[in-house]
Design a protein that fits this description.
The protein is 41% helix and 8% strand. By secondary structure, it is mainly alpha-helical. A 3-stranded mixed β-sheet has the order 6-7-15. A hairpin with a 3-residue loop joins strand 12 and strand 13.
Length: 577
């Protein structure tokens, strides 16, 4: 393998650490620590800290580990920005046309996540080589297994067929022989579950440091892995759902048992909006099972800010000049929050007409998720939204809606909303929250034909939604909106129940980058998105010619740079990329 290809492979698998720098320049750099210095609890714990830090520092505005850049493929959001050429590779993903394995954004997220895995594996290696004087050894190993699984999980959801870097002491030659098809799809999910189950046995109910995963966080992660695993895609030549595995669904039920979460003090927040506030009193609240911890005033110039959302801030003149206005909620999503005369979602009929605030009943969560013309931006009446350039850099091409879950009230400028290279905030990003646990449990029950149990769980979410009005209680009197969100009653067939659960996931988790991944997991992506394209092209002409190709567009192509450097060991995803 030539020098350049060795470098690419090393970067792709995260080998760029001091311990393997000889792969690059054939010599050990000055200042390398001895084994005696490295194999100490103090050094190992520093490595653990570095492993946590990478999940806040290795991501980028174009490669957010939240995956919002890749959720523009869903019916929740438009790419946004100024034109289709502004972030053109993401426009290609949005319309599912012109996506190439050579596109830089695909390799970017791949390399960043594998570099994160490298940092974690370096920490695991350091901790494993400590003797028993390291009292926290087993707990730190559990935490690191959780982190390693998280990076692999994000990669697997994006690319499906990925190399798993689980061993921490492979030689260069062994690295270069890793295959991205070493495991079947199901075996890959099983591998992640096994790593997490080891962590689950060790992690405590409560952690003094909020950024460290607890037993409940690990349970939520396990439930999600088993939920993905349940929807089997056993045919290597396509991405179709071949079966839904009941044993995996039972694992979801096991790991979403409420007692696990009660032991750690976890529950639903009284108001969903509390999960998306930057003030310290709201961060790491009762619903936040595990979150990436960002900070301000931490001794650095700006703090450790969430730059992964750096492109999302709107461009408000004389306030957030330079905001890039990406990831804009779709009209289709707005319409999904309409309710009928029973206070229930319209399900199949939600998109028959656009939401009219003067006439239509609506779920309050709409106004906590989407900022729209005629309403205050971030609940601040000093910033009333309208159809002007403040709220659309594209002149309306992507509409005038703005996401609220990612943004911060401009009144908090220079406190929690800070300009560094891009607009950023210190607000944590919740990775696993308890509402998702409830909905995963509901989905498992729905697929197991236990409809009554599933509906009870959906109603927990809807009851909280109806009461989530602390920031918007004046909207009915001031703006004429009609909040009407009620629980389901009566009995429902298995098919109806599953439809109800799927809609509730969309409403509750809207703009949290789960929608596209859910559609793929369910096998619904082609049908839902092609119908969306057909309807949406009359509202947003960027979708003229958009088309989702089944058994291709569900997953990203393996980046060309990685395939070219892998000695023939990487196989491209199906779909004639």
């Amino acid at each position: 393998m030539n020098k350049i290809n060795k470098y690419i492979l090393a970067a792709s698998l995260g080998l760029l650490t001091a311990s393997c720098s000889d792969f690059l320049d054939e010599q050990v750099p000055q200042g390398t620590l001895s084994d005696e210095q490295v194999n100490t609890p103090a050094y190992a714990d520093k490595q653990v800290t570095a492993a946590y830090a990478v999940f806040a520092t290795a991501e980028d505005i174009n490669a957010s580990f939240s995956l919002w850049n890749y959720d523009v493929r869903s019916d929740d959001a438009y790419k946004g920005g100024s034109t289709t050429n502004d972030g053109d590779v993401f426009h290609q993903l949005e319309v599912e046309q012109g996506v190439l394995a050579t596109n830089w954004n695909l390799n970017d997220i791949w390399v960043r996540l594998y570099n994160s895995i490298s940092r974690v594996n370096a920490a695991i290696h350091a901790v494993e080589n400590c003797d028993e004087s390291f009292k926290m050894k087993e707990q730190r190993l559990a935490e690191l297994r959780f982190l390693r699984a998280y990076a692999h999980f994000q990669l697997k959801r994006l690319f499906k067929n990925i190399p798993f870097v689980i061993s921490t002491d492979l030689t260069y030659e062994q690295y270069s022989e890793i295959k991205n098809t070493e495991y079947t799809n199901d075996e890959g999910w099983k591998l992640l579950a096994e790593d997490l189950e080891k962590a689950y046995e060790v992690l405590p109910d409560v952690q003094a440091d909020k950024g460290r995963p607890t037993k409940a966080a690990c349970a939520a992660f396990l439930a999600k892995v088993y939920l993905y695993k349940a929807y089997r895609q056993d045919n290597a030549s396509n991405h179709e759902i071949t079966s839904i595995n009941k044993e995996d669904l039972q694992k979801v039920i096991e790991y979403t048992n409420p007692s696990i979460y009660a032991a750690g003090g976890y529950a639903l927040e009284d108001d969903i909006h509390n999960n998306f506030r930057p003030e310290e009193m709201f961060e790491n609240g009762c619903e936040s099972l595990w979150a990436i911890q960002y900070s301000r005033n931490d001794g650095t110039k700006y703090g450790t800010l969430n730059l992964g959302y750096g492109l999302i801030c709107p461009n408000i003149v004389n306030v957030t000049d330079g905001g890039c206005d990406f990831y804009k909620p779709s009209q289709n999503l707005v319409n999904a929050f309409r309710t009928d005369d029973q206070g229930l979602p319209l399900l199949d009929k939600f998109n028959e007409k656009n939401y009219d605030e003067t006439k239509d009943n609506v779920d309050p969560r709409l106004f906590l998720t989407v900022g729209m013309p005629g309403f205050p931006y971030m609940f601040n009446a000093n910033y009333m939204m309208d159809e002007s350039s403040n709220w659309s850099r594209s002149g309306g091409l992507y509409g005038y809606n703005v996401t609220l879950k990612h943004n911060v009230d401009p009144a908090l400028l220079d406190q929690y909303l800070i300009k560094s290279s891009f607009w950023a905030s210190s607000m944590n990003r919740i990775v696993f929250r308890y509402a998702d646990v409830i909905l995963m449990r509901a989905e498992a029950y729905a697929q197991l034909n236990e409809s009554a149990e599933a509906i009870k769980l959906v109603n927990q979410i809807r009851s909280r939604a109806a009461n989530s009005t602390q920031m918007i209680s004046s909207y009915p009197s001031k703006y004429g909106v009609k909040f009407y969100c009620k629980n389901y009653s009566g009995s429902y067939s298995a098919e109806e129940t599953l439809k109800i659960v799927k809609m509730e996931r969309r409403l509750e988790l809207a703009m949290e980058s789960e929608r596209f991944l859910d559609l793929v997991r369910w096998g619904d992506a082609a049908n839902v998105l092609n119908e969306y394209f057909d309807q949406e092209k009359y509202r947003c002409n960027i979708y003229e010619g958009a088309n989702f190709t089944a058994n291709k567009n569900e997953y990203l192509p393996i980046p060309y740079q990685q395939v070219a450097a892998a000695n023939g060991n990487y196989k491209q995803n199906c779909g004639n990329w």
